[in-house]
Design brief:
Immunoglobulin-like, alpha+beta, Helix Hairpins, 2 domains, five-stranded mixed beta sheet
Amino acid sequence: MIGNTDHIMINGRMTAQWAAVLTKRMAKGLAAVFALACFVMLAGVGAVDAAQPLDWQLHFQESASPVMTKIHEFHIFILVIIVAIVLLVLALLIYCMVRYNAGTNPNPSRTSHNTTIEVVWTVVPILILVIIAIPSFRLLFFEQTIPEADLTVKAVGVSWYWDYEYPDNGDFRFSSFMLETPESRSEKATVSGGVVEDYPRLLAVDNEMVVPVNKNIRLIVTSDDVLHAFALPAFGVKKDAVPGRLNETWFRAERTGIYYGQCSELCGVNHAYMPIAIRVVTDEQFDAWVTAAADDVEEANRLLAGMLKSERQLASVSQVGDDATRADSTE
């Protein structure tokens, strides 16, 4: 407030002085909103589990591959630009309503053209689009340029499950079906020494695709019947599976663990029950698994589950030892 109400309203009209004060306060408020929006956008990155979607999740799943990392960066870059534009337009609208309403501006200008303004509102959007286009094309080029592959896996969409082939390792093939009951998910968690939360409803499968960590994986995608789409958010992978056509993409998983996706093309009545699960393991674990899988995939999965269970038990024992050491040092 500035002075008394006589400074604000004169004959029911807002004074120019009060309009200027209100405009300054509005600008400060919008700046605070912009800062808060940027904080929320950036704070959400990396705050979610990479393996699966979470309730009330903000932003994408945490990146687990170089492609997804670049997608994250581009997403935040565009989001900052969008928020800035929205707040700028909002500020201009509010300013015009406050500064040029009938009370503060009883004799409006009759100007119908302004060359400078018209040039600005034509050139500035073009420059913004160019600024967006350059990193966009770089990202597309990075996604589409497949590096020399350490492993090739073929994913075949079938109504309504996935088949996986390993042409570099004996050309064996197996099917991956969704685990439909809580009991089956609990059993799988017990066998691998994990927790049932690692095998979420509608995403957990009986046989995961298994790949080694920090290796370039060339992924060939096709379909045996109708259109499907292979999509795994944590890796930044999404590729259509088209009958009679081979599409390819790539990823490099940077951390071990299990990562989930789903078919993202409407493909029939059970489209929602066609999950994708990729198990990322160490080189030693993968070599043992793929050697056994060439003869018997089920036996290979049991072998891998045993190795994962032993690894978790050793990690648990090591954690207990570290906690005891820290406790002793503080006494």
